[in-house]
Hints:
This protein is α+β, with helices and mostly antiparallel strands and 172 residues long. Helix content is 30%, strand content 38%. Mean pLDDT is 90; it is low at 1-7.
Amino acid sequence: MKTRVPASARAHFVIERSYATATLDDVWALWTTSVGIEAWWGPEGFDVAVTFLDLRPGGELVYTMTATAPQQVEFMKRAGMPLTTECTVRYTEVSPPHRLAYSTIADFIPGVAPYEVATVVDFNATAQGVTLAIRFDAMHDDIWTERARAGHESQMRKLDRLIAAQQRAGLA
């Protein structure tokens, strides 16, 4: 069993994105509605279904995430992890449409005691569209931090493709 590291003592990493011609309200909706979240949340090769959403400080997002692509299914099996997990996000700040902060419990890692992971997303309108800065707590060790970073980058590629498709269709 590994030692639990308090969120305040952990490092963090940041992922930034820019979306030309997207609107702040459209990007905010992708992060804060069931339909928006289900359209892109989770790494590539995983599907997400929202089962509960209460968007307010102290409110929760509850969703199931299921490995669906063969490579992800195989990884989960090798790691001794279930193919479907229920996840809960607890919102700590909801300031439409500029900031969203939440915490999750990392309770899915074999042999590691559950611990809290914080995320802060800043949304900014620019003359060119919208920028996002997402700050994530590091995980309990370097290997899992790198897995988290790769997972979040993968998830953000899904968001990138969704926003690009909406822009092509004239929806964003």
